[in-house]
Amino acid sequence: MDGLPVGPTTTPLVIKAGWLDKNPPQGSYIYQKRWVRLDADHLRYFDSNKDAYSKRFVSVACISRVTAIGDQKFEVITNNRTFAFRAESDAERKEWMQALQQAVAEQRARARLSSAYPLGVQGSEPPDRAGSLELRGFKNKLYVVVVGDKVQLYKNLEEYHLGIGITFIDMNVGNVKEAADRRSFDLTTPYRIFSFSAESELEKEQWLEAMQGAIAEALSTSEVAERIWAVAPNRSCADCGAPQPDWASINLCVVICKRCAGEHRGLGAGVSKVRSLKMDRKVWTETLIELFLQLGNAAGNHFWAANVPPSEALQPSSSPRARRYHLEAKYREGKYRRYHPLFGNQEELDKALCAAVTTSDLAETQALLGCGAGVNCFSGDPEAPTPLALAEQAGQTLQMEFLRNNRTTEVPRLDSVRLLEKHYSVVLPTVSHSGFLYKTASAGKLLQDRRAREEFSRRWCVLSDGVLSYYENERTVTPNGEIRASEIVCLAVPAPDTHGFEHTFEVYTEGERLYLFGLESAELAREWVKCIAKAFVPPLAEGLLARDFERLGRLPYKAGLSLQRAQEGWFSLTGSELHAVFPEGPCEEPLQLRKLQELSVQGDSENQVLVLVERRRTLYIQGERRLDFTGWLGAIQKAAASSGDTLSEQQLGESDIPVIVYRCVDYITQCGLTSEGIYRKCGQTSKTQRLLESLRLDARSVRLKEGEQHVDDVSSALKRFLRDLPDGLFTRVQRLAWLEASEIEDEAEKVSRYRELLVRLPPVNRATVKALISHLYCVQCFSDTNQMNTHNLAIVFGPTLFQTDGQDYKAGRVVEDLISHYVVVFSVDEEELRKQREEITAIVKMRVAGTASGTQHAGDFICTVYLEEKKAEAEQHIKIPASMTAEELTLEILDRRNVGIREKDYWTCFEVNEREEAERPLHFAEKVLPILHGLGTDSYLVVKKHQSMEAMLLYLASHVGETKHGMMKFREDRSLLGLGLPSGGFHDRYFILNSSCLRLYKEVRSQRPWSGAPETSHRPEKEWPIRSLKVYLGVKKKLRPPTCWGFTVVHETEKHEKQQWYLCCETQMELREWFATFLFVQHDGLVWPSEPSRVSRPVPEVRLGSVSLIPLRGSENEMRRSVAAFTADPLSLLRNV
Ligand SMILES: [Zn+2]
Questions:
Q1: Ligand 1 centroid from CA 244, angstroms
Q2: How many angstroms separate the alpha carbon of residue 238 from the centre of ligand 1?
Q3: Which helix (H) or strand (E) holds 677?
Q4: Virtual CA dihedral for 351, 355, 357, 359, nearest 10 degrees?
Q5: Could you tell me whether strands 142-147 and 129-135 are parallel, antiparallel, or unpaired per DSSP bridges?
Q6: What is the number of alpha carbons within 13 Å of residue 684 lying toward its C-beta?
Q7: 1016-1042: b (≥16 Cβ within 10 Å) or e
Q8: How far apart are CA 343 and CA 373, in angstroms?
């Protein structure tokens, strides 16, 4: 193969040229003078020496013999045809014959040399496109072949096989453009214009594309290719061995042939990023070229093809199917790869990767990434948290380049679904339909403008056998074009009257074309949409067809447990609901787009990802195809926005409260509770208006920040919004009833009337009333500072909520009553109150602390939290809002440090007490702020994995009931009781832990044989209510605990006195069982968030695996914060303040 010429294959040198007489065609006696030219590949003859295009050409490879016949004549003999020429003299004939014989011999020698890649009759490359075309000036259709940088014309298919053609056009001088006629196009060169006509519009497009490819190839340069070929293994395709591969996968770092490149593309950019060595010139930086010289095919195959069974190896001549199979196995599944010794041990792989990237060992990096090391794993070094940063620090530019190119590469998985095969094997239902449709020319981008009626042409359309064909009219036999149902990726129905036709629908294809069809009749249009949908949606997803949809199609997505790789799912958009059918998942509830907690587009322009976060799940939709993805993006964004002015048309948060209301209430709570005249004072009109506009447009994306918005602007925006509600908060229908209720004299009767009326409100209104009144109650609790007592608030809000002029106090009285009787009217239960007490306490403490130190933090507390261990590099400073749970804090820290959560990683926030040498894993739902307040100077918070959680969960799962009893060693901390002396130490005691308390018995009297529970003395020596205990793991060494499996238990009495004592178990298992039971009874059985019952951010489930790919931003925390804070009764919460 080394003997093959390297470099462009165009215009080989002319070996010999001159005038010869060619024997006449049959039926004629006159010899014709022809200009004949021979080069290494072809013998051609022309009308004259000035012509650029031959009359005939014969492939040298097909010449079997050259023989002399009488009269200076000689014959060029091919398998099937003989061409006779006559020279001017014997000498000239000899020269021609020698030249021809030598060319044939050399051609054969070349063919032998590259036996691995035999030069076929029709040349060395398979054609990019071949078929019949009409060419103006020719009576019959020609057989046209686009191959490499040439367009070859043959009389017919038979001659193509014989290697005898008319002429070929070097596309370095070619240009193609559409002609006026829908099926015609011109190939223009400086010497001649070839006017072709295809069978259909669709075929024309395919020919245009192929010819444009040939032009690109002709204009390509081989400079990069030649540099990369400087290393021998790069001179043949990494996958099939074909010579002179001029394509490459820049993330896999291998050089491949054009045919393999086609299949690589089919693997998707998540597996292989395909670029041309010759055409994508901008990609080839010096660094990338150097990387290919160092890694390239040698290292690539050393890793990826370490174990290829001969039966599965590829040849240059392998079929597309074999290629697809091999490449799927090689790169998507990693079937043939060389397993790294650390394979399967994620932590070690990541560590090894972090080490490798600081060295020049690129092959090691390749092997580690290919075996699952996390390209974005956390290095443990905050200065250089990722492998990329480490490589940069170490000055390893090639490593950096390699990591960058692999930033989004999927880890190979043996069990990966073969999308392609799957896709092809789907049997689509057969649907038939026909009729006239109006159609515009297909487009390569979204239709932004209205298409006028004149732009549509009437076409007879037939849908049958999985193909939608369109014809000039119902009598035409050959279609103008066709769309295969299997190629349809999306079907969209624009709103009526979007275009010149009242009813239209759009069909998007895999090849990124958009076809617009129109009709007058709504009924006929719906019928067509239904039929086309049926034709391209597989049975698996046909449930989506039951609804009227605006958009329907398939998209690559990642969700749930399968974040490693994208799969294809089926989606439909109906109103503000996104329905999805996943091939492997259970049936899913539709996503309520207006209730999304996050909707964002991430990634760069090449790899866009649409992130949708709903309460319990996160969905990533990938922009693999640009055109239909852009369409979906716009439609989803539109559907997620508020659709009108009424309350229920707004973007909604959890508990059905409009995000717009929530945002304002939250902000006032954080920053405005102590602001004098809050809600009475007006903000600046212009600012208020601007704010309200942006909230109405997309409240979800509005972040109100202290210092940027004045509380009075925000409060005014909220009042304005409520006042302008078309139907009012209490609705037009019921408004009067509420006002009348306020006149009921008997208080109890009045309250029960309010409760009745509340039930009658629509859910969104009811939730909003509750949130608002709860908030107002909180505001009036601060009336000492803000001067807004219940009466003042009622004066402001009565007319706002009832949209009256304020002349009559009835509206105000309703508001005043609702605030005063909040607990009863809204049925706020004890549990809700208890939960919120700490939060409100914290807010108030914060406020006091803030004023004392002269800073205005309005409820925000900045705290230091460590990741994994207490050291300066692991520090995170984090704002702790009042409602933040331990789980939210944990996730926030992991997010910030880009730490991925894997299955069975029980990341937990611990409260560590250094003095006591004990630590307490916070329960996931525990509020962090109150804990921070109780934290002494010798304590801190750290987020790390809870090593015993799995064992504890297993224990709890296998254990019925919620009690535990047994012996433990017990010791009281007498120093706390003022004795100041270390006491005698640990003593055996019998403990019983049940759902309400922990009891200690001094002695066990006897064993009752039938129950297993030892009979104890009737009265326990001590007894503590379980909920007032805080249990820490560990006992300080100074106390010389008898075993290393101990607890430190803190009991806070009602009088806020603290007692502390210590417990020790015999074994670690026992310790875990006691601790698990403590957690179980303290938290009503919910020890670790299980998905369905989970109230807070559900991230661990959806983030298994490769979290770091797309970090989430936590907006839902904020969402829940104040809503939760104020749906409880502030009255009771503030009792302890
Ligand atoms: Zn190949």
A1: 10
A2: 7
A3: none
A4: -160
A5: antiparallel
A6: 6
A7: beeebebebebeebbbbbbbbeebebb
A8: 9
Instruction: Give the H or E element holding residue 965.
Output: strand 964-972
């759902």: which residue's tokens? Answer: 995
| Alpha-carbon gap, residue 8 to 226, rounded angstroms | 10
Q: How far is the CA of 1050 from the centre of ligand 1 (A)?
A: 70
Q: Which residues 6+ apart lie within 8 Å of 1018 measured at CB?
A: none
491 pLDDT above the threshold of 70: yes
Q: Are 480 and 182 in contact (CB under 8 A)?
A: yes
Distance 625 CA to ligand 1 centre (A): 25
Residue 854 has what DSSP assignment? T
At residue 876, φ and ψ (nearest 5 deg) are -130, 135
Residue 446 has pLDDT above 80, yes or no: yes
Give dist(CA 349, CA 373) in Å, integer.
5
Ligand 1 centroid–CA 337 distance in Å is 18
Please give the residue that has the higher pLDDT: either 384 or 704.
384
Which residues, including other chains, have CB under 8 Å from residue 529's CB and lie 6 or more apart?
A: 491, 493, 505
CB atoms within 10 A of CB 781: 21
Q: Give the neighbor-by-neighbor strand order of the sheet with 164-165.
A: 63-69, 73-78, 82-86, 14-22, 32-39, 42-46, 56-59, 164-165
Strand (E) or helix (H) holding 243: none
Q: How far is the CA of 114 from the centre of ligand 1 (A)?
A: 15
d(CA 1097, CA 1117): 7
Query: In whole angstroms, what is the distance from residue 991 CA to residue 1013 CA?
Result: 11
Q: What is the pTM of this model?
A: 0.43
- Residue for token pair 């004549």: 73
Read off φ and ψ for residue 552, nearest 5 degrees: -145, 140
How many angstroms does the Cα of residue 740 sit away from the middle of ligand 1? 83
Distances (CA, A) of 156 to 163, 290, 459: 11, 47, 32
The rounded Å distance from CA 371 to ligand 1 centre is: 24
Cα 236 to middle of ligand 1, angstroms: 8
Q: Do the beta carbons of residue 78 and residue 56 sit within 8 Å?
A: no
d(CA 986, CA 1114) in angstroms, rounded, equals: 47
Tokens for 979, please give them.
């004795």
Phi-psi region of 281 (alpha: psi -120 to 50; beta: other; left: phi over 0): alpha
Mean pLDDT in residue range 811-834: 84
659 Cβ partners below 8 Å, 6+ apart?
Answer: 650, 651, 652, 653, 699, 700, 1119
What does the pLDDT read at residue 528?
93
Find the DSSP H helices in 233-344. Answer: 258-267, 286-294, 296-304, 320-327
- Please give the distance, rounded to the nearest whole angstrom, from the Cα atom of residue 354 to the centre of ligand 1: 33
CA distance 837 to 834: 5
Beta partners for residue 32, in sequence order:
22
* Distance of alpha carbon 918 from alpha carbon 916, whole angstroms: 5
317 Cα to the center of ligand 1, angstroms: 9
**904, pLDDT greater than 90:** no
Q: What is the rounded CA–CA span in Å between residue 864 and residue 876? A: 6
- The dihedral built from the CA positions of residue 623, 626, 632 and 636, taken in this order, carries a sign that is positive
Most confident of the following: 311-325, 952-966, 1109-1123: 311-325
Tell me, what DSSP letter sits at residue 362?
H
Q: How many Å separate Cα 908 from the centre of its chain?
A: 26
Q: How far apart are CA 326 and CA 311, in angstroms?
A: 10
Confidence band, pLDDT 50/70/90 cuts, at residue 493:
very high
Say if residue 490's pLDDT is above 70: yes
For residue 1126, the model assigns a pLDDT of 28
The tokens of 509 are what? Answer: 């294809």
CA–CA separation, 872 vs 296, rounded Å? 42
Evaluate whether 715 touches 678 at the Cβ level (below 8 Å).
yes
